[in-house]
What does this fold into?
Amino acid sequence: MNDTIAAISTALGVGAISIIRVSGPDSIKIVNNIFKGENLNKAPTHTIHYGHIIEKTNVIDEVLVSIFKSPKTFTTEDIVEINAHGSIATTNKILELLLENGCRLAEPGEFTKRAYMNGRIDLLEAEGVMDLINAKSEKARKLAINQMDGKLSLLIRNLRQDILETLANIEVNIDYPEYEDILELTINDLKPKIDNIEKKIEELLSNSENGKIIKEGIKVAILGKPNVGKSSLLNSILNEDKAIVTDIKGTTRDYVEGSIYLNGIPLNFIDTAGIRKTEDIVEKIGVDKSIKLIEEADLILFLLNNNEKVSKEEKELIEKIKNKKHIIIVNKIDLDKNIDIDNELNPIYISTLNKKGIEEILNRIKELFNLGKLETEDLTYISNARSISILKEALKRIEDVRNGIKNNMPIDMVEIDIKEIWNLLGTIIGETYEDELINQLFSQFCLGK
It folds into this structure.
């Protein structure tokens, strides 16, 4: 990372301004080569300078240039930001001049990667930057800000410190058994320590579901047989004609999607093909997709007809979804009642024709996901799949420690598994890492960040 990189940091398109960012040891010198105005090499840090970007004697653009000198910068390197007019041609021309004068085009996320590699932020904080860029709601923004501020990182570090103290105690007992003033640590003494570590990891994992909901929203699949009113329900919830509604069975042959916000959380609805046996190849593909979606969705809205008895196929599907979060909805209450449904299923009765019961569905969703109590002022929720999978792996390692204690294994053997838990938690914040993982993670960032 001894070279100087450059990239366009704003979205490429027509706008009032665009920003081209440069970072590295030669950033000020390179920009000064194409800048007509004050000598940037002599400019103090954290200052803005008016002038023009030039190519030989030709003026390219009228600009403002911001100077940030190491180490008090985002990457801890010298950084220059060129604020130009937001023309695509002008922005690309300035970048071209920078590359011609010694800059290298930055890889996706390379500015943030340099901030991480130079020790300014840890891996969780870096992921918080990406989450902030991609935040689609106010709560998602607050969640990302808390992660960027290091609150979640502090929890992980404190947990690692607890484990480290246990490891140190084990090492002292192994290496200096003759010291009488050292508290002897037996295999059974480890159990309450492991219980405490396990409790903290489980709490992080439990809260991670809330983090995932805030960050990604709730994936809601609307299921049922043809003509039960799935598309009408979607249109009623969205308050727009998103899905085509007809009396012809099999009208919806693929997903129709739409979103609303409920208590600041995105609800991502998917209207699926009506589930039935069919010889139509295209419709059958849609039905198969609907069945598969049962496993992928966070919530199932299962529709039944008020004027028809529950069929065998519908009973089988109700059985299939019983272990997932779901709401049974009985539609068409404006028609004569002929349904034979168990009230223990706690159905909601609605009429998509008259838009009755829609509010009750939304209130039930709030209850199921506890949306009324999701606060983001002091959130320390893990929300990315990478960290969640690491925490789950750490729990498996705790089970290995428990088995070692149960089987009276030597304490130095049990220590190996405890040390692996410490290492795993280190990968969450980037204290321990593999180069391939780091490269993959930062490649998901946009250029210029």
Q: What stands out?
A: The first strand starts at residue 5 and ends at 8. The radius of gyration is 29 Å. Confidence is low (pLDDT under 50) at residues 242-254.
